[in-house]
Structure formats: structure tokens, C-alpha cells
């Protein structure tokens, strides 16, 4: 299939990961999760907005009973310090003693997952792991164990399949990288 470059806002993007390759890697992660969480009724926590498409396709491939809920991180600057604090919003489930799997579209610097995991761990889940569609190993700035990465990519800015550039591009079926 031919994938011409796309223009989003001021930038041009070229095809990087076609849909069939994405869906194949999602199937593989779903098979691993289905195996590892059989009989454990895992609770997926998908981090909005970017993960919605990955979460939907992953759920369709799960062959063991599982639940899903959507959370997001509110980012605000703590006036007392220079660091930015990211608080979880929308977590209505009691995750105590649950097998929790965080779903991300991308782990880039790792700041988001590094902020999220301690807050979830505090609530006493039986286990806590991360599944991500994409990871940029060269960009990672935290010592994180990402047990279920679907694909590793170079340090390029990507859009599509849920990922946006200033709000646009999430609807693309394929993933593109900036030219
Ligand atoms: O590893 P990091 O460097 O923290 O980057 C990864 C995060 O960045 C994106 O979220 P964004 O804040 O753009 O929100 P969105 O999902 O609503 O697009 C993405 O969905 C991850 O959550
Ligand atoms: N769209 C998009 N969002 C990101 N958030 C962190 N890294 C990326 C990226 O490469 N693309």
C-alpha cells in the first residue's frame, strides 16, 4: 500500500510503521499478556489521550477475562518547587490487590510513567506492570522496567494511531515520523 507524506500543522511526516505491522506487534503483546494474566482478571489502566487506539486493539486480542479503565495525568507546576507534579485523574476503581497493567501509547523520556507508578503502587495493587505500544530506549531518562513494549523506535517524533502533533493526527491508521 502506498503511503504518501502527510502534512500536520507546519510539519511533514513520512510513513514509519504501517498499520499491519502495528497490529501484528499488538497481537504479540496481547498474547503474552493473555498468557501471563490467565485467571488473574487483570485491570488495564489506559493513560489518555494517546493510548485509546492501542487500548482498543489490545483488548480485542485478549483471550482471558480482563477489565479496563481510563485515567489521565493532570500536569501542573508546584509553586513551591521547580518540578512539575502529575496527579492521577479519573481513577475510580479500587486497585488494592488487583493485577494492574498500565497502557501507554509511548514511553519517551519516561517522565509520565515514572510519575504514575509510585502513585499507583501506594494503593496496594497485587502487581503492577506497564504495556506500551512504543518505547524510545535512547530517550529514556528513568530507570524503569517496561515489561510489555510492543515496538522500540529511534528518537524521532511520531504521530498517528492515537498519537498527536498539537491535537491532530490521532486518527491516522499508520504511524508517521517527522521529516
Ligand atoms: O515518556 P514521556 O516523555 O513522559 O512521554 C510519554 C507521554 O507523552 C504523551 O502524552 P501527552 O502528554 O502528549 O498527552 P496525550 O496522551 O493526551 O497526547 C504520551 O501519551 C505519553 O503519556
Ligand atoms: N505524538 C507524540 N507524542 C509524544 N510524547 C512523547 N513522545 C512523543 C512522540 O514521539 N510523539
Q: In a nutshell, what does this entry contain?
A:
With 179 residues, this protein is α/β, with parallel strands linked by helices. It has helices spanning 19-36, 52-61, 111-121, and strands at 6-8, 11-17, 43-47, 67-77, 84-89, 99-107, 127-135, 148-152, 158-159, 175-178.
In the predicted model, the low-confidence regions spanning at least 5 consecutive residues are none
Write down the overall geometry: globular
N/C terminus separation: 20 Å
Number of domain units: 1
Neighbour order of strands in the largest sheet: 5-4-3-6-7-8
The hetero molecules present are:
1-O-pyrophosphono-5-O-phosphono-alpha-D-ribofuranose, guanine
Quickly name the level 1 CATH class: Alpha Beta
Order of helices and strands: EEHEHEEEHEEEE
Strand composition percent = 25-35%
Percent helix among the residues?
Answer: 10-25%
Rg over CA atoms, rounded to whole Å, is 17 Å
Content-based structural category:
alpha/beta
Mean pLDDT: 94
CATH topology: Rossmann fold
Descriptive report:
This protein is of the alpha/beta class. The protein has one domain (19-154): Rossmann fold. The protein has 3 helices and 10 strands; from the N terminus they run ββαβαβββαββββ. The chain has helices at 19-36, 52-61, 111-121, and strands at residues 6-8, 11-17, 43-47, 67-77, 84-89, 99-107, 127-135, 148-152, 158-159, 175-178. A hairpin with a 6-residue loop joins β4 and β5. It is globular and about 50 Å long. The chain binds 1-O-pyrophosphono-5-O-phosphono-alpha-D-ribofuranose (PRP) and guanine. 1-O-pyrophosphono-5-O-phosphono-alpha-D-ribofuranose binds at residues 47-50, 104-112, 164.
Amino acid at each position: 500500500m502506498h503511503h504518501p507524506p502527510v502534512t500536520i500543522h507546519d510539519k511533514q511526516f513520512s510513513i514509519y510503521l504501517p498499520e499491519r505491522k502495528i497490529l501484528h506487534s499488538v497481537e504479540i503483546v496481547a498474547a503474552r499478556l493473555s498468557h501471563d494474566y490467565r485467571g488473574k482478571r487483570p485491570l488495564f489502566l489506559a493513560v489518555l489521550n494517546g493510548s485509546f487506539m492501542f487500548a482498543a486493539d489490545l483488548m480485542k486480542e485478549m483471550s482471558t477475562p480482563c477489565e479496563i479503565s481510563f485515567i489521565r495525568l493532570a500536569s501542573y507546576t508546584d509553586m513551591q518547587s521547580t518540578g512539575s507534579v502529575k496527579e492521577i485523574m479519573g481513577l475510580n476503581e479500587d486497585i488494592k490487590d488487583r493485577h494492574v497493567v498500565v497502557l501507554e501509547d509511548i514511553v519517551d523520556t519516561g517522565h509520565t510513567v515514572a510519575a504514575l507508578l509510585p502513585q499507583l503502587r501506594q494503593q496496594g495493587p497485587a502487581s503492577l506492570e506497564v504495556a506500551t505500544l512504543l518505547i524510545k530506549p535512547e530517550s529514556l531518562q528513568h530507570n524503569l522496567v517496561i515489561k510489555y513494549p510492543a515496538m522500540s523506535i529511534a528518537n524521532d517524533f511520531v504521530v498517528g494511531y492515537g498519537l498527536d502533533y498539537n491535537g491532530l493526527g490521532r486518527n491516522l491508521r499508520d504511524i508517521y515520523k517527522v521529516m
